[in-house]
Amino acid sequence: MSATEVLHAGDAELHVALAGATPLRWLVPHDGAPWDLLDGYRDDAELAAQNGVRNGIMAPFCNRVADARYTFDGVEHDLAPGAADRVVYHGLVRTLPFTVVERTGATQAGADGHASLRLRCTTLADSPAVGYAFPVVVEVTYTLGPRTLGVEITGHNVGDVAAPYASGWHPYFRLPGTERVDGLDLDLPASVAVRTDDALLPLPGADAFAQVGAPSWRPLGDAVLDAAFGGLDPALPATVHDPATGARLLVRQDRGLVHVFTGDTLARDRRASLAVEPVEVMTDAFNRPDQAAAIRLEAGERRSFSFTVELVPGSA
Questions:
Q1: CATH says 4-182+221-230+254-312 is which class?
Q2: DSSP label of 203
């Protein structure tokens, strides 16, 4: 892969492409060999094609924008002018170049402690994007531990007027030794399910929200999921569990929603990994009055969204 940075923490490694600040591999020891917890792009061609948005950083919006249009402060914006395909999703920076701003900790394999990498994208600030003429600088910081990965996404409005902005991450996880998601358990500390139409857009107004009680699938079996859940309990993680080994993957976030996708439409290796996506706001937030305050980034303001993933090894 071209232009890739590598972090080390103990025997763990994180490989990040500068294109989109995209994590490619997160390696941890398993049965005496490295196991990749991420189902990422395998080569430059996959990274360029962006199928499935594997491990993509989502900013300045999360998931879909209905009809590729939105209105902000009374002005309508079109993210795909003249296009027949009006499906726009998962933000803009996932294909843009990032540069290294700072790195701390070990650069060699086997070193103890934590290591971090901070990357910055100024493209949206340097030149207006189609349908998004707001100068926002996006930074992504990865902090790697022996069995943990922390992610922080920061948007900085360097312009003179407010901007619509939100962020999220689209990771695909694989627990050690697993080949499919069907045998895994999933538990979400959520109290709200987001109801959508056939285009996966949330229903209007209050109809979008359904009360649920800590949804779980034990196991996932043949369940097909592409849905978001809110009302998260920040004291509890979303948990992916392999009952065969006891291994758990814990995803912690202090706000926002979690979107779950079982990978049924991927171009390769369908249902081989599970997307558990921390998102700052719900899908189509740019078009929802109930999300107006959450997406508003005032001139000069910075806002960060952070979360941590931890692997708890099993006993087998």
A1: mainly beta
A2: P
Distance (Å) of CA 58 to CA 21, 154, 198, 237, 286: 10, 11, 22, 21, 14
Question: 52 pLDDT exceeds 80?
Answer: yes
- Residue 303 in contact with residue 165, Cβ under 8 Å? yes
Cα gap 104→114, rounded to integer Å: 8
Q: What is the pLDDT of residues 101-116, one digit of tens each?
A: 999 986 565 556 899 9
DSSP alpha helices (H): ranges in the chain? 44-49, 123-126, 292-295
Q: Residue 177 to residues 16, 181, 262, 311: CA-CA distances in angstroms?
A: 23, 11, 18, 13
Q: Rounded to an integer, what distance in angstroms lies between the CA atom of residue 314 and that of residue 316?
A: 6
Cα 4 from Cα 129, distance rounded (Å):
25
Q: Are 193 and 199 in contact (CB under 8 A)?
A: no
Task: Compute CA 185 distance to the chain's CA centroid, rounded to the nearest angstrom.
Answer: 20
* Under 8 Å between Cβ of 123 and 97: yes
**DSSP structure string for 9-69:** ETTEEEEEETBTTEEEEEEEEETTEEEE-B----SHHHHHH-GGGTTEEE-SS-SEEGGGE
Q: Say how far residue 215 (Cα) sits from the centre of its chain.
A: 20
Rounded Cα distance, 286 and 62, in Å: 9
Distance CA(244)–CA(175), nearest Å, equals: 11
Question: What percentage of the chain carries pLDDT values higher than 90?
Answer: 93
